[in-house]
């Protein structure tokens, strides 16, 4: 007598379970310690009919499409009520995946000037490429997604988008007032991507410094700067995934041959939105170079996104000038000891034991 209602209940439960599993795959949930902007999401669509799907999202209550990404990422940046269940976005027709808009910060660090640039060029092969092969980047568009650039610096051209100037591409996406600690960060882009911190200028010098003090890897390249970091607030620069992705898309749209991102963060997964966008740019024929991150001493799986994107060139650094250096502190019955070795990269160099030096 009760068989039919029972079967209907089973069908409903199975359908609900399948629906929940589908939504789970389409909505990315970050761990609690990952900072995100409340009510801000990155939505990826299933196909390239971006405007159709974005218009559909705009019909939803408490949902507003802020920016449509159409060049290398079929998606949109969406603002919602802070109380809206993101599952509503994930269940909308045409939606492939939804990410919370993750915050990023760049801590200000003080350093000292080094005088070993000639040695760096010698060890990395830059001098050989320039002198023997005659390669200096001429004819190549190299674009940087970073904190901006001091384009008035004499060794970086001292100009912006004038005839004969190396800086022919780029713009500002964030302005000077952005602070993602705020619930409603202010985005007021400037007319030019002027650097008020120095990170982007430093990167630009490595890539294309024209000397005489600093000569970059490709001083003859045509350059672009896409500013995605704000000015300093309490010792930190801020941005978020959506702004970084807008800068990347613009660089791709402008025809940049190489897009450099000396930035990264979040989990090192190919499903990260910046990794997905980077992989799409590579598939379209571009070259994306990204920093592996600064967390290598924390162990494996610490490479950040977008460096882990498919086809992306992830760049890391080690301190090794053809010399092996190992220091290990351990305890023995005779007391604490330090095992040291320093010499050519050979396997037959013995350990030398010295008495440990107290750190406190």
Low-confidence stretches: 8-19, 323-330, 337-347, 349-354, 356-360
Instruction: Specify the CATH homologous superfamily of the largest domain.
Output: Peptidase S8/S53 domain
The CATH topology of the largest domain comes to: Rossmann fold
Strand content: 25-35%
Family: Belongs to the peptidase S8 family.
InterPro entries: Peptidase_S8/S53_dom (IPR000209), Peptidase_S8/S53_dom_sf (IPR036852), Peptidase_S8_Asp-AS (IPR023827), Peptidase_S8_His-AS (IPR022398), Peptidase_S8_subtilisin-like (IPR050131), Peptidase_S8_subtilisin-rel (IPR015500)
Domain Peptidase S8/S53: 137-332
Signal peptide: 1-21
Task: Give a brief rundown of this model.
It is built from eight helices and 14 strands. With 360 residues, the chain is of the alpha/beta class.
Structure description:
By secondary structure, the chain is an alpha/beta fold. It has 3 domains: 19-103, 2-Layer Sandwich (Alpha-Beta Plaits), CATH 3.30.70; 108-263, Rossmann fold; 323-355, no CATH class. Helix content is 24%, strand content 26%. It has 8 helices and 14 strands. The protein has helices at 3-26, 50-58, 87-90, 117-124, 126-131, 199-208, 241-253, 273-283, and strands at residues 36-45, 63-69, 75-80, 95-107, 141-146, 167-172, 222-227, 236-240, 258-261, 287-291, 313-315, 323-332, 335-344, 352-355. The strands form 3 sheets. A 6-stranded parallel sheet has the order 6-7-5-9-10-11, sandwiched between helices. It has a 5-stranded antiparallel sheet with strand order 2-3-1-4-8. A 3-stranded antiparallel sheet has the order 12-13-14, with no helix packed on it. Strand 9 (258-261), helix 8 (273-283) and strand 10 form a beta-alpha-beta unit. Helix 7 (241-253) packs parallel to helix 8. The radius of gyration is 25 Å and the shape is globular. The protein starts with a helix and ends in a 5-residue tail after the last strand. Residues 8-19, 323-330, 337-347, 349-354 and 356-360 have low confidence and may be disordered.
């Amino acid at each position: 007598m009760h068989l039919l209602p029972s079967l209907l209940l089973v069908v409903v439960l199975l359908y609900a379970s399948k629906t929940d599993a589908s939504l789970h795959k389409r909505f990315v949930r970050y761990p609690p310690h990952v900072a995100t902007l409340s009510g801000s999401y990155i939505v990826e669509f299933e196909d390239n009919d971006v405007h159709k799907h974005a218009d559909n999202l705009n019909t939803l209550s408490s949902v507003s499409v802020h920016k449509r990404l159409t060049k290398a990422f079929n998606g949109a940046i969406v603002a919602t009520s802070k109380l809206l269940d993101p599952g509503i976005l994930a269940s909308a027709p045409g939606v492939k995946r939804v990410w919370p808009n993750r915050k990023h910060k760049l801590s200000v660090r003080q350093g000292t000037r080094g005088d070993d640039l000639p040695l760096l060029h010698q060890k990395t092969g830059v001098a050989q490429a320039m002198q023997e092969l005659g390669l200096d980047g001429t004819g190549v568009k190299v674009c940087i997604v970073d904190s901006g650039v001091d384009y008035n610096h004499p060794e970086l051209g001292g100009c912006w988008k004038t005839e004969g100037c190396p800086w022919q591409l780029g713009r500002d996406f964030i302005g000077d007032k952005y602070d993602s600690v705020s619930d409603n960060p202010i985005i007021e882009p400037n007319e030019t991507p002027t650097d008020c911190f120095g990170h982007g200028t430093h990167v630009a010098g490595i890539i294309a410094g024209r000397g005489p003090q600093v000569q970059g890897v490709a001083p003859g390249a045509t350059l672009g700067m896409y500013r995605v970091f704000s000015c300093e607030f309490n010792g930190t620069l801020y941005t978020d995934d959506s702004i970084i992705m807008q800068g990347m898309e613009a660089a791709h749209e402008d025809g940049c041959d190489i897009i450099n991102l000396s930035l990264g963060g979040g989990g090192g997964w190919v499903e990260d939105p910046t990794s997905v966008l980077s992989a799409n740019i590579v598939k379209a024929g571009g070259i994306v170079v990204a920093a592996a991150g600064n967390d290598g001493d924390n162990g494996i799986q610490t490479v950040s996104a977008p460096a882990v994107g498919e086809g992306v060139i992830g760049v890391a650094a080690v301190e090794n000038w053809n010399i092996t250096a190992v220091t290990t502190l351990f305890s023995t019955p005779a007391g604490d000891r330090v095992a040291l070795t320093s010499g050519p990269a050979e396997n037959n160099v013995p350990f030398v034991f010295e008495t440990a030096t107290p750190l406190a």
